[in-house]
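Researcher: Can you fold this with magnesium ion in place?
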Amino acid sequence: MARDGAVYACQSCGAVQTRWSGQCPACGAWNTLVEELQSRPPGALKPSKAARGLAFQGLEDTTPAPPRISTGVEEFDRVCGGGVVPGSAILLGGDPGVGKSTLLMQVAANAARRGARCAYISGEEAVEQVRGRAQRMGLADAPVKLAAETSLRIIVDGLKREPFDLVVIDSIQTLWSDAHEAGPGSVTQVRAATGELVRLAKKQGVAIILVGHVTKDGAIAGPRVIEHMVDAVLAFEGERGYPFRILRGAKNRFGATDEIGVFEMGDLGLSEVKNPSALFLNTAGERAAGASVFAGIEGSRPVLVEFQALVAPSAYGTPRRAVVGWDSGRLAMVLAVLEARCGLGFGDRDVYLNVAGGLRITEPAADLAAAAALASSALDEALPQDCVVFGEISLSGEVRPVSRMDSRLKEAAKLGFRRALGPADGDGGSMGYVGVGRLAEAVRRIGEAAWD
Ligand code: TYD
Ligand code: MG
């Protein structure tokens, strides 16, 4: 029996249980239930005394929306839907060390240089550390107000007293509110702090950006428990060993979510990559067997990336499947279709698939490019150097049409590609176009090097 007021909150999904168990019944994660004291026992909500009526309004709105704050970091603005909306709360999630503090310092500094009143409140680093990094990045002249604070009450009081346009809180997991007994970083604290800051943002018209560390071990509450409370959720991603960082919109009440921003981490912080289409392309040397160039779309922009596959005899009983930058379930599906519909066998072979440059591809249109790389490696026959590939593959082995073929082909032509392998009935324009209705046909062409 739980003590009075004690509940057990899953630090991964935020579900609250009245008794402890080793596995969260809601999300299935292990060892994530942690006892948290409720400030008020459930069911003891006092009835509201205020007899304010419910005020309805029409759909038509005549009050103009306040202008968005342009931060001057274009890639960031675009992912936000064209600048930051005043009075909104944005959550920026990402692995520790990926560059969240660096990005937001640059955002705050650039916005401040353009006249926005900006504050950067760090609960993780001392002011000297934050300032030192900003100076190294050449941002010392920007009029950003710095503070190191973890007490929610002091932060909220401070922000009520002094008006700001943009406030960065780094990170939400370090804040604590004295109204709750649970420790900093617990679901209760993280939720309480977020709730209070979101209310403050709406009331004061200040845009608040919260940093949330993504945690895998559940020692502190992950950003998922507050995703529903904020207006936008952005994810900052990067593969270890690559300088590229991708900013992705996961939720946005004020814009599209398929937009990405591309940055490169260097000695002077992050620099924007305004034209990423050729960034993930391996341009050095001949294209070997096992490589294919995917003409993809990331958000509103076409991006060309290279898929690299290696199919090799397996030395062990269980063949290995390893994939970087693509979904492993999707790889299993494409391998199964290649086996069942195209006569290629992978049962006794190791399969490795890699997306060059550290990008993560989620578009179904990449199926054919992945399949082409796999078939090319399995058959040891290289694709033409000047060929791009796109198309979705169905379980029956059909190659399905994809969206925005025109932009894909145009970008490929711009970068010097002269040929495209894609779904049947496509029109390559000035490019040589090889349309295939079925995956087997693409595999046959790769095996016979039949391209003309
Ligand atoms: P940081 O922004 O502190 O990450 P987060 O806030 O997401 O935990 O970035 C940390 C990494 O970025 C660190 O490994 C060093 C690297 N970095 C650079 O390479 N160049 C720079 O100019 C800066 C400021 C950081
Ligand atoms: Mg940080």
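Model: Folded with magnesium ion in place. The two ends are 75 Å apart (CA to CA).
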